[in-house]
Amino acid sequence: MVNTKTTGDIGESAIIHEFLYNHVPVYLPFGDNESCDIIADLNGSLQRIQIKTCTNIVNGVIKFSLNSRRYKTDYVYNTTEVNYFALYCVENRSCYLIENTSTTNRRSINLRVSVRIVTGK
């Protein structure tokens, strides 16, 4: 069984890989107490990015929690701290980049995905 810290590390490494694979420079803030996980140079502009990871798809929906626990309370990222959420789903090994706007300033986001079943035939 993988713990939540390891799951988060898997998501962070997958997102960083995707940015680097697409020639997007990535910078890492020092320490675990910053509001963003990485800073990426998107089209010449440095953007603060919070990475969130989910492990499975349920009924065609990937559910990502956008909040975190800070000082024993739930914390929601505001638009001045985080420009984008980079989301990684372990089950389908897919990455998603969602801009953090006033409408995404909430506790979770659900993405409906098309699931394709592959058989050995």
First-residue to last-residue Cα separation: 31 Å
Backbone CA Rg:
15 Å
- Described by the principal axes of the CA atoms, the overall outline is globular
Number of DSSP-assigned strands = 9
In sequence order, what are the helices and strands, one letter per element?
HEEEEEEEEE
What does the average pLDDT come to? 86
* Helix-strand makeup class: mainly beta
Task: List the total number of helices.
Answer: 1
State the helicity in percent bands: 10-25%
Largest sheet features: 5 strands, mixed
| Low-confidence segments | none
Portion in strands: 35-45%
Subunit arrangement of the protein: single chain
**Major sheet: order of its strands?**
1-2-3-7-8
Defining traits:
121 residues; two-stranded antiparallel ribbon
Describe the structure.
The chain starts with a helix and ends in a 9-residue tail after the last strand. The mean pLDDT is 86. The radius of gyration is 15 Å and the shape is globular. 15% of the residues lie in helices and 39% in strands. The chain is mainly beta and 121 residues long.
